[in-house]
Amino acid sequence: MLFYFTSTGNSLYAAKQFDEELYSIPQELNKENRHYKAERIGIVCPLYEFDLPVIVKDFILHSEFETDYFYIVMTYGMHHGGCASRNAEYFEKAGRHIDYFNTINMLDNALPVFDMDEQRKIDPEKKVDEHLAMIKTDIAERKQFIQPATKEEVDFYGHFIAIAADFSAALKQPKYSVSDKCIGCGICTRVCPKGCICVTEGRATYDSTNCFGCMACIHACPQKAIGYVEIKERNPEARYRNPNIQLMEIIKSNNQN
After folding, report:
1. What does the alpha-carbon distance between residue 253 and residue 249 come to, in Å, rounded to a whole number?
2. Checking DSSP bridges between strand 22-24 and strand 176-178, what pairing results, if any?
3. What is 158-175 written as a DSSP string?
4. Which residue in 50, 122, 123, 215 could disulfide with 81, CB within 3.0 to 4.6 Å?
5. Which of 202, 193, 208, 200 is closest to 8 using CA atoms?
6. pLDDT (tens digit, 0 to 9) for every residue of the chain, 257 residues total?
7. How far is 175 from 211, CA to CA, in rounded Å?
């Protein structure tokens, strides 16, 4: 039994390598009774600001898991900031024991920092499938492992925390805006895991109230009509979806309408 959250398909692609019994976290959060029992239970999700997405953390803390082996795998692009050891300790204090916590380096789709065209060029160098196979073996063998935080990652995370306050204004709500390029196709409304976008009078409108910045709407918009309000993107014309994942799979995973 494996639960996942995905916005561009990277984490869904990874999840497919580990288990056949997949459950979307946004869909599971719609259920009142969230008690799960299986010999092995896993979570696969992306890294957001060197932490688990708030939607994933809420799911773990407010669900019951009855299992002999609980694992988490996070996908990330450049630095993981020692998130595994930090979060394993956090969950242990919250009464959620993690047997295995690892990360997998995939294409980084953080638009304010990276150009998706440039990321595609270097993606093969990351040898994603080889690393996924190694983690799959670990899970199959029920390996006990929490990825250690190297000094480099701890320092990088510390640097991020130190400068985060400088970007608070740029990250304030609302995060996104919809331009005149919008044709009202509604794709953004169907990939948003929190129902933050709706189509009114032929145009998408964005409500930032529950938005946690997953960028699913931005990456999925065929017209590139959604962008950041305060932050300049590296390449506003480049968007990303994992080439092994169909748009309908992300819609099925996240649609709240």
Report:
1. 6
2. unpaired
3. HHHHHHHGGGTTTTPSP-
4. 50
5. 193
6. 999 999 999 999 999 999 999 999 999 999 999 999 999 999 999 999 889 999 999 999 999 999 999 999 999 998 898 999 999 999 999 999 999 999 999 999 999 889 999 999 999 999 999 999 999 999 999 999 999 998 888 888 787 777 766 655 555 566 899 999 999 999 999 999 999 999 999 999 999 999 999 999 999 999 999 999 878 899 999 999 999 999 999 999 999 87
7. 8
